[in-house]
Amino acid sequence: MSSTRSALIVRGGWDGHHPVEATDLFVPFLKDSGYDVRIEDGPAVYADAGVMAGVDLIVQSNTMSTIEHDQLVGLRSAIEAGTGMAGWHGGIADSYRSSSDYLQLIGGQFATHPGRHPDERPGGERDNYLRYTVEVTDLGRSHEIMAGIEDFELETEQYWVLHDDLIDVLATTTHPVQPYHPWHRPIVSPAVWTRLWGEGRIFVATPGHSVDILQDPNVRTIIERGMLWASR
Description:
By secondary structure, the protein is α/β, with parallel strands linked by helices. Helix content is about 25%, strand content about 30%. It has a nine-stranded mixed β-sheet with strand order 2-1-3-4-11-10-9-6-7. Strands 5-8 form a two-stranded antiparallel sheet. It has helices at about 20-25, 25-30, 50, 70-80, 90-95, 100-105, 140, 210-215, 215-230; strands at about 5-15, 35-40, 55-65, 85-90, 110, 130-135, 150-155, 160-165, 170-175, 185-195, 200-205. β3 (about 55-65), α4 and β4 (about 85-90) form a beta-alpha-beta unit.
């Protein structure tokens, strides 16, 4: 019996998150960690029960887009049976917005990324780039994914996430009150979380808008560890 594990990369959706370049960044790590890597451009493979039964880890980078009913059933069934799932940013936390069953599976959904002061917006995606801190929680400090990682700063999109209580939050980020925003107290969003679902594990990190953020040593370490943690 082969000891090689199987990783399935599912990528596509909105090009602004660079799904090809972003996932290509982690292929060498997966191969070095003992995985055979299969890459699919979209979620159609989720409906193939024969393929999914042999997958130890799904790495998804598929922002927005849509998922068919049989594909979603296949994805949920695989995770419930022990397949792991991991991803970052919109590739997992802003996928298949119209599917409530997918949102329940992941446990947290992108709502917005607050912007800079209106007078400090250069135009384009950088209008939503903020300097913010990723704060490791007490749970995170005791978790293998975050071991040795202290609070760190990034300048990129800061995800505001709608979430439930079934996630285990390893790191957070706080959206402050600003006079140009309509909320009246600071809002804490999960930035890194895990979720147990049936026999499977799910890992999500919200940083990862661009390849340079994925190459940040803290972000890259967290994602690499998260993929290994989630895997069957």
